[in-house]
Amino acid sequence: MKLIRLAVLVTFTVSQVASLKVGVSKVDATLPDGVPLAGYNYADRRVPHWPEPQETKYTTWMMPSKGHLQPTWVKALVIDTGDEQICFVTLDAIGSDGTLMQLAYDIATSKGFTIPFDNIALFGSHTHSGPGGITPEFLWAVAPAMDLLVPELQETLANSIATAMLEAAANLQDGSIGIDIAQLTGVTENRRADISPYLKKDDIDPNLGVISVNDGDGKPLATVWNYAIHGTCWGPSQMLSNGDIMGGVNDVLETMNSGVAMFINADAGDIAPSNSTCNNMPQFDGAPVIATAIMNARNNIKTSQNVTIKVAAQVIPFGETNGNLTLARVENCTKGGPLDICTICRVLNCDINLHLNEAWVEQNPKFGAFAFNINGTNTGMVTIPGEALSDLGTEIRNDLLNMKFDNVLLGGYSNSHMGYFATTREYDVGDYESLLTFWGAYTADWIRGNCTMIAKKIAP
Ligand SMILES: *[C@@H]1O[C@H](CO)[C@@H](O)[C@H](O)[C@H]1NC(C)=O
Ligand SMILES: *[C@@H]1O[C@H](CO)[C@@H](O)[C@H](O)[C@H]1NC(C)=O
Ligand SMILES: *[C@@H]1O[C@H](CO)[C@@H](O)[C@H](O)[C@H]1NC(C)=O
Ligand SMILES: *[C@@H]1O[C@H](CO)[C@@H](O)[C@H](O)[C@H]1NC(C)=O
Ligand SMILES: *[C@@H]1O[C@H](CO)[C@@H](O)[C@H](O)[C@H]1NC(C)=O
Ligand SMILES: *[C@@H]1O[C@H](CO)[C@@H](O)[C@H](O)[C@H]1NC(C)=O
């Protein structure tokens, strides 16, 4: 009896080690010329007499794009351990929207995709020159950061996302993966350093997470990099859609034998690319610097087939927004910073605490966590449904390290987009990121609490 049980156990372990499968895909999801570009709500991007509309085929409050500089890529990675299948999807867009993700998932499942919704994460790169018109939340539409939803555009993009998911699943083959975290400084800076007494320019998140995905012969299939950086090298005068600096890095990576290069943004709420990173656009002087750091990290990663993955996910209702006197905090403003929140509120007749329901901004985000055990090394990843400031990112990272994860990945701008998450300290300092933190002074604590709560369910 004892012998038989041992035999079963050994067979199980061996088959598990041998059965890791990985699949990747890369789909050109470029939308037609003339779409709004999401990222800036002023200067050349906004109609001249906003809030008076100036309609074109795809735009209402924003100016139509004049074409594209780079394709809008959707890239997908499926990892199948035999026990668990997960799917990561990256999208060259300002963020990820819950309705877009649901739509893509429904299309994919109708065509035979079988990975459960909870095991999928959709990550927006946060390029500020990607497509708009693809999310229904009215606040983003009127801001105007996204412009009004154009169902045809949303459906086209959802189809591309579904195609990427299906192709990655169809491409499953024997492979191996590895994860490591390198450090990278000098390419980003803290953009609140001039505003906040607590922050200096070099208060950035230096963690550069890298997931190496190889085929059965050890050749690179994909490289996923996870770093905190705003996609703001191009300003609002750029009317051609493109992936900004992260798109530039991906293009360089793919010339360096990275396989499909996928970007997952992190706690970039207050982290901008530094000037030297953006120099010499559209090549970006920083792109080869960042790409080289990624490939150096990748070359040090020993991939393994001995992988287990655990997944936890939960939808957490946040309820109506609660500006908690946000507007009072800017009662004397004439323009309220780049968002122009005072004008918007005058137009909309907002109440003082900015109580907005889910027609205005998502409030039922999916929080997800992934635990990777790769040959004994534990990596924890949480998804964050919006823009965490870097001090919040540090708190969440430390929470996971305290749970005995060896490595931590922060999946920012994922699944849903609820705006910024400024910590109480920065909320009180005020300004742009604070005004766009919609659930009051403790928003970041609740984001942190929920990330931690989900991660704990699958901690080592
Ligand atoms: C970076 O560029 C901005 C905008 O062009 C400029 O205002 C700023 O002075 C530059 N900073 C440095 C450190 O060169
Ligand atoms: C996996 O771990 C075992 C035991 O710790 C070790 O002997 C082996 O070298 C590791 N394999 C890889 C690919 O890291
Ligand atoms: C707005 O201005 C009034 C009058 O100057 C002042 O009393 C009030 O404190 C100001 N409010 C803010 C939030 O600065
Ligand atoms: C697989 O990883 C586990 C740790 O999770 C380790 O105990 C085991 O020795 C590894 N198996 C092989 C074949 O390396
Ligand atoms: C709103 O502000 C008050 C006063 O600063 C504070 O006591 C309260 O906890 C805040 N509530 C939220 C939801 O931020
Ligand atoms: C999760 O978020 C909800 C909604 O904001 C909040 O009420 C709750 O306290 C948060 N949970 C934790 C553990 O922080």
Bound molecules: 2-acetamido-2-deoxy-beta-D-glucopyranose
Helix content: 25-40%
> Count the strands?
20
- Rg, rounded, reads 21 Å
Which structural class best describes the helix and strand composition? Answer: alpha/beta
**Strand order in the largest sheet:** 6-5-4-1-8-10-11-13
Which geometry do the CA atoms define?
globular
Number of domains: 1
Largest sheet descriptor:
8 strands, mixed
Number of helices: 13
Distance between the termini: 31 Å
β-strand amount: 15-25%
Oligomer: single chain
* Mean pLDDT reading: 93
Query: Which blocks of ≥5 consecutive residues have pLDDT under 50?
Result: 1-16
Describe the structure.
There is one protein chain. The chain is of the alpha/beta class. The protein has one domain. Helix content is 29%, strand content 24%. It contains 13 helices and 20 strands. Strands 6-5-4-1-8-10-11-13 form an 8-stranded mixed β-sheet. A 4-stranded mixed β-sheet has the order 15-16-17-19, with helices on one face. Strands 2-7 form a two-stranded antiparallel sheet. The chain is globular, with a radius of gyration of 21 Å. The N terminus is likely disordered.
SSE order and pairing:
Blueprint lengths: L1 H17 L2 E8 L8 E2 L28 E2 L4 E8 L4 E7 L6 H13 L9 E5 L5 E2 L6 H5 L8 H20 L2 E11 L4 E3 L16 E9 L4 E8 L12 E2 L2 H12 L4 E6 L5 E3 L1 H4 L7 H14 L7 E9 L10 H4 L11 H8 L17 E9 L2 E7 L3 E2 L1 H13 L4 E5 L8 E2 L2 H6 L2 H4 L7 H14 L4
Parallel strand pairs: 3-12, 5-6, 11-13, 17-19, 18-20
Antiparallel strand pairs: 1-4, 1-8, 2-7, 4-5, 8-10, 9-14, 10-11, 15-16, 16-17
Helix pairs in contact: 2-4, 5-7, 10-13
The protein binds 2-acetamido-2-deoxy-beta-D-glucopyranose (6 copies).
